[in-house]
TrEMBL record:
Identification of the protein by name: Transmembrane protein (PGPGW)
Keywords in alphabetical order: Membrane, Transmembrane, Transmembrane helix
InterPro entries the record matches: Uncharacterised_PGPGW_TM (IPR019099)
Positions of transmembrane segments: 12-39, 60-85, 91-109
Natural source organism: Zobellella endophytica
Length: 139
């Protein structure tokens, strides 16, 4: 308990966490729309997800990119969990982490999230503002 009080009363740590939260917040405001606009219109219309852009690369490059993408996703996941109790966009950061991480059932989870009415309306609004057609879902 004393360690927690000492950690919270450490100004350098609090400033660092505050800056990290602010950077993640601003980054998520830029990254989320960019990612949403890059989703192909028919991405969710199939039973299985589309192949990744680097699927045709040399196996060493493909594995290196996969490992780096998952490490970045893990960092975002840990930051998102921390931001659930610290200032910042915890849920948004966790959503970014889920997009980056690879795990069984990820495509079904993405479809389920994007089919939620509030998420779908927001995504369609962003795409409409950018002159892109709305996402097509197989019902």
């Amino acid at each position: 308990m004393d360690d927690l009080v000492q950690m919270i009363s450490n100004p350098a740590l609090m400033w660092t966490l505050g800056i990290v939260s602010l950077v993640c917040f601003i980054g998520s405001l830029l990254v989320i729309p960019w990612l949403v606009l890059r989703i192909p219109v028919d991405y969710f219309s199939g039973e299985y997800r589309h192949p990744v852009p680097w699927a045709e690369q040399h196996p060493v490059i493909r594995w290196l990119l996969l490992i780096l993408k998952n490490l970045l996703g893990l960092v975002f996941l840990l930051l998102g969990i921390a931001m659930l109790v610290l200032p910042g966009q915890g849920l948004l950061t966790i959503l970014i982490a889920l997009v980056l991480l690879n795990f069984p059932g990820k495509y079904r989870l993405e479809r389920r999230i994007f089919m939620m009415p509030s998420v779908r309306q927001g995504v369609d609004w962003l795409r409409r503002r950018a002159g892109r057609p709305p996402l097509v879902f197989k019902d």
